[in-house]
Each structure stands twice: as C-alpha cells, then as structure tokens.
From TrEMBL:
Superkingdom of the source species: Bacteria
BP terms from Gene Ontology: proteolysis
Signal peptide residues on this chain, from the entry's feature table: 1-30
Pfam families linked to this entry: Trypsin (PF00089)
Designated name of the protein: Secreted trypsin-like serine protease
GO MF terms, alphabetically ordered: serine-type endopeptidase activity
InterPro entries given in the database record: Peptidase_S1_PA (IPR009003), Peptidase_S1_PA_chymotrypsin (IPR043504), Peptidase_S1A (IPR001314), Trypsin_dom (IPR001254), TRYPSIN_HIS (IPR018114), TRYPSIN_SER (IPR033116)
Amino acid sequence: MKLIKHLKRCIAASAVALAAISMSPGTAMAQSDPTGPSTKVVGGTRATQGEFPFMVRLSMGCGGALYTKDIVLTAAHCVDGSGPNTSITATAGNVDLQSTSAIKVKSTRVLQAPGYNGTGKDWALIKLAKPIDLPTLKIATTSAYDNGTFDIAGWGANREGGSQQRYLLKAKVPFIDDATCKASGGSYGGLIAAEELCAGVRQGGVDTCQGDSGGPMFRKDNAGAWIQVGIVSWGEGCARAGKPGVYTQVSHFATAIQTAAGQLR
Ligand code: ARG
C-alpha cells in the first residue's frame, strides 16, 4: 500500500516511466549468503561490525542515522506524515539485521519536513521510545564538506530490482556538481540545486538503491570525525551510467533539522 502510494507520488513528480525513478522504500527483507561471493550492494562491500555505528535500519524498509541517541534522521518519503507513531521499529548496533544482539527500539513520534510535498525537502525525524547507546552522526551545518568523496551504506538492494540485504553494505561515491547532475536527462532536470546534492560514479556501477533511502551519505571532516552531508533520496534506477544518486543536502536543512529535533524533546 505504502509502496503504491510512493510510486504514485513518483509518477506525479516526474514524467519518467514507472520503476525507472523511484522513491519507494525497500520492501520485504531478503537474505544474502554470508559466505557467498562478496554480495555487493550496488558496487559495494560488507561494512565491518562497528564501522558505522550510527547506522539504523527502519522497519518500513528504509535507512537512517542516529542524530541523537533517541532521534533518527531519515527521508521524508520514508514516512507517512507527522504525529504520534508507534509503528516503526529501528534496528541498530549490528551489521547483521538478524543478529540476536541487534538493538530494536520502537518509534513514538515522527516529524516530516515542514512543507514536504514529494519534491525536495526529503528529510524527517523519528523519535525513539528509548535512547540507543551508540555513537551519533553529526550533521553538516555549512556547505564546507559538500564536496569530495562520500561514504554510503545501507541494507537496500544490491542491484536495480534486487533484494534487500541482511548485512550492511558500503561504498564510496564522488561528488557531482549540480550543473552536471541537472544535465543528466529525465527527472534530473528537476533537480532542486539548493536542496539536493548529487553523487555517483560517472560510468555507473556504484550507487545507493531501493531500501537505502533515508540512510546517510557522509565523509570525514577536517578533524577526522564522520559528518553527514546527505540523505539517500532518489535516482533513475540504480548505478546506471550518467544517472547519479540524488541526496538531500543536509547542510541546507541543518537549522530546520535542529529546530525540529528540539520540538521532539
Ligand atoms: N528512493 C530509494 C529508496 O526509497 C532510494 C533510491 C536511491 N537511488 C539511487 N539511484 N541512488 O530506498
């Protein structure tokens, strides 16, 4: 039901063929073979336990990051709106979603970006029933880090049309400037340069994909600490040549996110 709604939203938002562009979260989780030939996200490898301790998997089939110990930053298109909500389970603390030591906490409230209408402003906060004692991921408050090479991670599909992953996968993607991104054809012409940040490998093969939405795109700051610069938002297919991943530009919304988090306490 949610999937259909999101697909409809996507169709409304663009003239692109169904399934080509999608903002729908991933659906049911499938298993990957832990011993198999390095199960790749799109072009990724396994994250090691504890490498990205702030990573969260959300039960509607999205990713997220711990903004505080009891607030998860995710994508607006991953949630249904704002208000009390006890239906979401956040899983954290283990790269293996099926690990018995994974921490699971329910949501209590959701705050979707004010003014979100399916285009841009793709961020939301989820308040948790109790704090999770893991490192948080600080967000970029200036555009200083909106460049370079970014890290991406998630339990989403490992190829376009592929299944959700049991083990957290990671990859690196270079920054793509707004003009180049906007010139990528199709939906990219509608890129909202101030609110969205593009990244991807020109020749394709490495990207986030369905089910990674809401998860962070991040890098190291000048002090060597992780800093979140993006939120997985959309793309035409996954890892296609000349079709970058589009991410919410966190620095643009940093003040709004801080204000919203204050309202959740
Ligand atoms: N909208 C997708 C989701 O809900 C994420 C798509 C990212 N696509 C991409 N090509 N980078 O999971």
